[in-house]
Amino acid sequence: MDAPQLIDLLRRHARLIQKIAYAYCRNAADREDIVQEVAVQLWRSHDRYDARYRETTWIYRIALNVAISFHRRERRHVEHRLPIELHAVTIAAADVAPSDDVQLLLRCIEDLSALDKALVLLHLDDNDHTAIADVLGISTSNVSTKLGRIKHRLRAALAQHTRPNGGSDGAR
Amino acid sequence: MELDDLKAAWTAHGAMLERGVAINERLLREVMLRKVRARLTPYVVWRALEVALGAVVLFAVMSVIAAHGGEPRYLVVGGPLAVFVGAATATSAYLLVHAVQLDYGGPVTGLQRAVAQLRAAEYRALKWALLGGVVFWLPAALVLFEALTGVDALARADLAWLVANLAFGVLVLAVGQAMSRKFVERADLSPWTRRVVDAVSGRALRLATGDLAELARFQREPAE
To answer: Would you call B222 and A8 a contact, using CB atoms and an 8 Å cutoff?
Structure first.
């Protein structure tokens, strides 16, 4: 993959990558690090892209892997740098203030495991169970079961956060 | 409240991120174009100085010719020198005007084209200045010496030496022009020749070309 191809890829999927970064990091600098690391991984693994899968599936996999690794290791700095100076990375790391509802959502999913969080993100992005299973490498029935449990758990969390004096300043 | 109730907010968040990316793109364009403009500022200043200096030299040469109106030596040697200085000054003025009139608000490809034209014109201007310099260096030195000191150096110069210098200059000019047409002014430049052209067409234009290429690369439409 050459630089223009990587730029095209980042432009087309900046929103997806950023949403994942938002779900795993509250800090803007960390989010930019995630975008940078995702760009590096896309650059490195492009040769291994299997055209039978949708491009978004591939991007989801890479971005989620990066975000989960980042989250687990609590890295404060990216480990790799692109071999080229790429403004597209900075641009793709656009920072916007989330709405109250999104802040509420992010607070509620904060306590979920990294994998469950990924599942929620894929569900929120309107991926069907088959697509979610493809990205996460689990069975479709497993997706349904897990999603049911997560929804149940989040219902309680949302109720707690939206209840008056429920400890949430994002309650509406 | 259910998880699915927050889907709309999440989608709206995605749209906001996309708008953020679009804003960042515009900011990058502005930053890069500001950089290109800054890169070209020394180029514009130098061309303006060239025009000013050219006008002064032209005035000096014309004054000397006018002072020796009836003398053939001054007409035959000073006349072409005046034409050469006038042409060089006009070329600098042309480069200056085109550099100042670059349209930074238009498409990047248009700006790239204009800078590429400027580089080509800059190369031609430099080539003719160097080749012309070989022809006219001696008359120019003599005439300017006279303009500065009042000593009629051109009238006192040995005519044979003067003619030999001019003839040698014309020969170098002819060979230089032929080599330039054969090796440089062609579409399929070798990498080495391209580096030479890049080097002689000026650092400012070369850097500006690099910045514009980077901007154009980023602004390329995504291949769906």
So the answer is: yes
| Least Cα separation, residue A13 to chain B (angstroms) | 9
CA of B217 vs chain A CAs: smallest distance (Å): 6
Nearest residue of A to residue B31 by CA position? A87
> With an 8 Å Cβ cutoff, is B223 touching chain A?
yes
Supply angle C-alpha A119, A120, A121, rounded to 5: 90
pLDDT in tens, B82-101: 999 999 999 999 999 999 99
A/B interface, count of CB pairs below 8 Å:
97
What chain B residue is nearest to A151 in terms of C-alpha separation? Answer: B3
In a domain, B85, yes or no: yes
| ipTM at complex level | 0.70
**Contact predicate A162/A104, CB 8 Å:** yes
Give the start-to-end residue ranges of the domains of chain A.
1-96, 98-172
What is the Cα–Cα distance from A4 to A105, expressed in whole angstroms?
A: 35
Interchain CB distance below 8 Å, A158 and B2: yes
Integer Cα distance of A7 and B183 in angstroms: 36
In whole angstroms, what is the distance from residue A72 CA to residue A136 CA?
Answer: 17
Q: What CATH architecture is A1-96?
A: Orthogonal Bundle (1.10)
User: pLDDT tens, B109-158?
Assistant: 888 899 988 988 888 898 888 888 888 888 899 889 988 898 888 888 88
Q: Tell me the one-letter amino acid at A148.
A: G
pTM comes to: 0.63
**Does the pLDDT value for residue B36 go beyond 50?**
yes
What does the pLDDT look like over B51-73, one tens digit per residue? 999 999 999 999 998 988 778 88
B185 touches chain A (CB under 8 A): no
Domain around B129: 3-219
Residue B17 — very low, low, confident or very high, per pLDDT cuts 50/70/90? confident
**Is CATH 1.10.10 the right assignment for the domain spanning A98-172?**
yes
CA–CA separation, A74 and A72 (whole Å): 5
A105·B214 Cβ contact <8 A = no
Interface check for A171 against chain B (CB to CB < 8 A): the answer is no
